[in-house]
Amino acid sequence: MLEGIGQGFAVALEWQNLLYCFAGVLLGTVLGVLPGIGPVAGIALLLPATYGLHPASAIIMMAGIFYGTMYGGSTTSILINVPGEASSVITCLEGYQMARRGRAGPALGIAAIGSFIAGTIGVVGLMLAAPPLARLALAFGPPEYSALIVFGLVVLAFLSSGSTLRALAMGAFGLLLGTIGLEPISGFARFTFGVPELFDGIGFIPVAMGLFGLGEILDKAARAGSAEVVRARLTHLLPSRSDWARSWRAILRGTGIGFLCGLLPGPNAVIASIVSYGTEKRLARHPEEFGRGAIEGVAGPESANNAAAAGALVPLFTLGLPSSPPTAVLLAGFLIHGLTPGPLLMQQRPDVFWGVLASMYIGNAMLLVLNLPLIGVFVRILRIPDVYLLPAVVLFCMVGAYSVGNSLADVWVMVLFGLVGFACRRGGFDTAPVVLALVLGPVLETALRQALILSDGSPAIFVTRPIAAAFLAAAAALIVWNLVAVRRGRMARTLAADPTGGARCSD
Amino acid sequence: MLRLIAILLLTALAAAAPAPARAQYPTKPVELVVPFPAGGRTDIIARQWAAAAGKHLGQQVVVVQKVGGGGAVGSIHVMNAPADGYILMATTIGNQVLRPISATVPYRYDSFAPIGQISAATLVLAAKSDRPWKTLSELVADARKRPGAITFGTPLKLLPHLTVARFARAAGVDLKHVPQTGDGPAITATLGGHVDMVVTSVGTILSHIKAGNLRPLGVFSEARDPALPEAATAGEQGFAVVGEPWTGIAAPKGTPAEVLARLRSVFELTIKDPEFVAGMEKLGERIVPMRADRFGARWAQDFEGLEPVVKALK
User: Fold this and answer.
1) Is the Cβ pair B207, A322 closer than 8 Å?
2) Residue B106 CB partners (closer than 8 Å, separation 6+)
3) What ipTM score was computed for the predicted complex, to two decimals?
4) Do the chains contact at A186 and B156, CB–CB below 8 Å?
């Protein structure tokens, strides 16, 4: 193992590999910043250009794009409330509130630092424990997966700082949206009206861009001219000592949660960011700050989605199994160079296996150095007057939505959900549960029905399998805990006469 | 001066004369529509082929993704595109033959003109290696004793699923299908022991077989696969079931005959192109070339053979 690590650094430190690593992370950062254009499109476009390269160089560059986008994804979430990837939806909640209070710099800074720490620890985990962790991932079958998502949805219901009832309503709306398309077990068409574009369901990227980005812009535009528009002054560019003191635990917890979630197939980075946010909100000393720009709510989830990126490479490298679309494209990158990631890669091509892992340490350090100075540049975007900034963001959203599948239908979906998002803001409904439930719902349905096929319809399968039973018990405990907390909170609120129930996104 | 004007006017006149009635196809870049996501097997094959075709056509061939509906969105886009040879499709049995059977779409397998088949994969039935069966006959004997208890995972209503359905019918056994969202999840479920068996192309699971995690019980092709010579064909084992997922190139129906002829002759060159052959070899993808007429006949044959199988699933 030590020998392997040594060999890996020898490969990664060759000057041309350093160059390809830098090119990869730079491109990844840029793609991550542009909403809609994510790692999948980036790596796929680059594939043909890597034919002539040494396989290790090519994979180093493509992996750089993959984890580089995880850094960039938070930028637009924080600055303009447009999530670049699904895993950055959660970052909008606190990040954008921080930006509105003039603290975009510390938000971006803690996101970059948290990403660096999580990415680095994640690579250590990948190097030391990949084969046993891969076995853990395999233990997750349909019943375990259903239970995990139920747990995730319960956490989600309590995420919103406003009323739980409203969050549940929005979550149910998201789950309903998730039923559109060909149903996963028998292929029956639901709510598709014969439109083939709807067979795969509604994509979450156009929905998220509409609900968050366009909805926010419409809301801003509707307020223009009123005295409410306050241009926040930019105070500090980097996190202060007290920010740091509040964040470091969140970063470490987010790293652990993210890495473990990353091992599992499906939208693992999304689940990781939800669970991390929920954890931080639960453990925070000042839970009342959540929803108004709590830095822990940026630090935790941003670390979690980066650690998930490292975790997602475990099944890819050790089993050859891609767990998410970006790792699937990365698998294609291996294949066109005649490499098969999987149980034999470590023995057959140790130069590639260890070289790519070692390059990830270097790449993460490069990303930190690259991103910290960029904060000053990004923050200046907020000084652009709204008359120029808002149309530019609309344009970006449209291009982003179109670029997902070269489909005009996605642009219309985005526009439609922009209007829905605007209405939700006006009505004081939080839109994050819609997007997250839309991502998780179809996964839950598939896993649930697979489990019931395996058990011939008996729901006992969810309690007789220990991992599944544990997640369901945790979900039940969370509900009970919250019922108790709500009862206590109601008394406290009557005393404080706090009128802000449920108005997070309209404040 | 006058002479100059005369020369200029004559030149202009010559330029205005009708250019050769139809300029030699192609005069501009050609789009190759891929109806599946970037990075998938169809996409990688298409990108390799596009590079070779560009070389031999003398015009760039640009890959364009039109993803959705199990390939239906891209197929419809190509069906409705002008039939002038500037929009082609990288097509598979999934989007072209099977999608119109299992869902309501406005096209059929014969809504396109064949250019040629590039490759065909060998489907292998593999069980987790701690399961007791070593051959299809042992599997069948066990399945007779425990009807519906042995499970297999594949994506829904695509060729691997249909091939197992045919096999089960031929053998007179009942195997339980657990639908999966893709080949990757199906392999994961098998490695984790959540289902007993998986059916997919040899290239996709070769490393797991070599590592001893999965055991091949048989392949559903006419001949054994060179990459996996130890796996006997279903035919050898007494079950005459064949299912080969293919990938090829098609054009919109109604493309002019001379354009089709040009594309087909270029196709012949591409599949022998050393760079293309080397690229496909690296991918572990078997080039099984088929000329346009036979490729088109295969579409009809697959449709006739598989439509009753899909209908019987409901």
Assistant:
1) no
2) B76, B79
3) 0.81
4) yes
Residues B131 and B210 in one domain: yes
* B174: containing domain: 123-219
**Beta-carbon count within 10 A of B269 CB:** 14
Task: Say if residue B98 is in the same domain as residue B131.
Answer: no
d(Cα A68, Cα A73) in Å, to the nearest integer?
9
Contact A265 B188 (CB under 8 A): yes
List, as ranges, residues 55-74 from B with C-beta within 8 Å of A. 64-70, 72-73
Contact A319/B191, CB-based, under 8 Å? yes
Check whether A183 has a pLDDT greater than 90.
no
Interchain pair B157, A335: CB under 8 A: no
Residues A25, A69: Cα–Cα separation, whole Å: 8
Q: Per the CB < 8 Å rule, is B43 touching A182?
A: no
- Pick the most confident of A346-355, A373-382, B72-81: B72-81
Contact assignment for A40 to B38 by CB distance below 8 Å:
yes
Say if B43 is an interface residue toward chain A (CB within 8 Å). yes
Residue B277 lies in a domain: yes
| Nearest beta carbon to residue A454 from set B65, B151, B191 | B151
B137: domain CATH number?
Answer: 3.40.190.10
| Chain A interface test: which of B207, B209, B228, B314 (most A C-beta within 10 Å) | B207
Q: Quote the radius of gyration of chain B (alpha carbons, Å).
A: 24
Position A499 scores a pLDDT of: 45
In a domain, B13, yes or no: no
B39 interaction partners in chain A (CB closer than 8 Å): 40, 43-44, 47, 325, 328-333
Which chain A residue's Cα is nearest to B101? A187
Structure tokens at A70: 């995880």
Same domain, yes or no: B104 and B129:
no
Mean pLDDT over B282-298 rounds to: 91
- B282-291: average pLDDT: 88
pLDDT-derived band at B67, boundaries 50, 70, 90 = confident
pTM of the model: 0.83
Name the B residues in 8-37 with CB < 8 Å from any A CB: 37
Buried b (16+ CB within 10 A) or exposed e, A112-140: bbbbbbbbbbbbebbbeebeebbeebbeb
Give the pLDDT band of residue A413 (cuts 50, 70, 90).
very high
For B187, the token pair is 């392999």
- High-pLDDT (> 90) share of chain A, %: 24
Q: Which residues of B fall within a CB distance of 8 Å from A43? A: 39
Dump the DSSP string for A157-213.
HTTSSS-HHHHHHHHHHHHHHTT-EE-TTT--EES-TT-GGGTT---HHHHHIIIII
**Distance from C-alpha of B214 to C-alpha of B197, rounded to nearest angstrom:** 9
Region of poorest pLDDT, from A76-90, B9-23, B49-63: B9-23
In a domain, B263, yes or no: yes
Whichever domain contains B74, its CATH number is: 3.40.190.150
* β-pair type (B87-92, B214-219): unpaired
Query: What mean pLDDT do residues A449-475 have?
Result: 92
Instruction: Indicate if B192 and B146 belong to the same structural domain.
Output: yes
